[in-house]
Write a structure and sequence with these properties.
single chain, 143 residues, 4 helices, 0% strand
Length: 143
Amino acid sequence: MTTSTLTPDTPNVPDADANTTVQLPISQLPASETFASQQPPVQPAAPQATAPASPHYDYPPVRPTNVLGIVTLVLGVLGFAIVPVVTGHIALAQIKRTGDEGRGITIAGLVLGYIGLAGYTLAALLFFGALFLGFIGAVSSYR
């Protein structure tokens, strides 16, 4: 079976052999092939100098505040004594281990807790001292 190859410049003539190709003179080639065959090979473009990228500044990562440190401060302000001391020491150990924020507020809560503990201890000593002196006074006047 023969096939015919139709081009705008050639007449409608069946090919003698389907495996042969017809070479047309340059004058009869389509304009796109003529232009492409006469061009020199394309050379790669020279690298263009680009401006250096401006540095990208990110904010440092935000470390969370230790929750136990916040609890220590709140309980220290409210006047609790033993609980902020215990939670404060636990919070300081956690802050040291994890690198959380809140060391300052934890220390403030610890100081308030120790002040409260000292105040309650002093109040207890005064109360029990007065009670003891009253007991001694009562016993001595009973005779």
